[in-house]
């Protein structure tokens, strides 16, 4: 049976930590749909479309990856895509409580859904998109945390004139 998994998140921007989870997921699942959350209430540096485009640039020739934008309830999106597996990364113990709460709630909302947790490499356990944005905004070195294409996008964002 071919299993499609949904990997949801903000991905503002995608980092090597997310990419590590996706690579591990491809060892288990036939296809992964990277679902970029479009949350109008959540402040993001990149628009949902920009985030999607940035991920597509990384996975351009990988037929087993699809990138999509979703809004609303995750369980509704999973249902709409005909999937029943959600992949989430667990970086550190402090992620666990929040992730378990979400997984349990999603299962309550839709009993068909299973959440699969995967652990990234230790060097990515302290990584977050916010930290990357902060370091990039001060011109710090993010080479080992994001692909080159993402670094270029961040530099363009932070070097753009205020109204761009
Ligand atoms: N490597 C590096 N960083 C990682 C990571 C990894 N493997 N996994 C998570 N992170 C970081 C992200 O970069 C992000 O950092 P930031 O807060 O600095 O931006 C942070 O962990 C949060 O991760 P993310 O996966 O983006 O989670 P989220 O909490 O923003 O969103 C959703 C989680 C989208 C799954 C959840 O909000 C959702 O389902 N929303 C839809 C509405 C819904 O159904 N609500 C009911 C849920 S029960």
Please describe what this structure looks like.
With 164 residues, the protein is an alpha/beta fold. It has one domain: HUPs (Rossmann fold). It has 6 helices and 5 strands. It has a 5-stranded parallel β-sheet with strand order 3-2-1-4-5, sandwiched between helices. The protein is globular.
Radius of gyration, whole Å: 16 Å
**Distinct ligands, ions and cofactors found in the model:** coenzyme A
Instruction: Tell how many strands the DSSP assignment holds.
Output: 5
The helix/strand order is: EHEHEHEHEHH
Number of domains: 1
The helix-and-strand class reads alpha/beta
CATH architectural arrangement: 3-Layer(aba) Sandwich
CATH class annotation: Alpha Beta
Main sheet: strands, sense, barrel = 5 strands, parallel
- Widest sheet: strand order? 3-2-1-4-5
What fold name goes in the CATH topology slot?
Rossmann fold
Number of helices: 6
The rounded distance between the terminal residues' Cα atoms is: 48 Å
Q: Percentage of helical residues? A: 40-55%
Which stretches are low in confidence, meaning pLDDT under 50 for 5 or more residues running?
A: none
- Shape designation: globular
């Amino acid at each position: 049976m071919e299993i499609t998994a949904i990997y949801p998140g903000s991905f503002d921007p995608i980092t090597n930590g997310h990419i590590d989870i996706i690579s591990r997921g491809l060892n288990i699942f036939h296809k992964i749909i990277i679902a970029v959350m479009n949350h109008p209430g959540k402040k993001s540096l990149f628009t949902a479309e920009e985030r999607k485009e940035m991920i597509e640039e990384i996975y351009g020739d990988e037929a087993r990856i699809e990138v999509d934008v979703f809004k609303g309830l995750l369980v509704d999106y999973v249902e709409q895509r005909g999937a029943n597996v959600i992949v989430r990364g667990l970086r550190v113990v402090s992620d666990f409580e929040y992730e378990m709460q979400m997984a349990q709630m999603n299962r309550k909302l839709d009993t068909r859904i299973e959440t699969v947790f995967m652990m990234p490499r230790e060097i990515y356990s302290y990584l977050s998109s916010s930290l990357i944005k902060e370091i990039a905004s001060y011109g710090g070195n993010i080479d080992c945390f994001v692909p080159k294409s993402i670094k270029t996008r961040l530099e363009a964002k932070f070097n753009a004139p205020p109204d761009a």
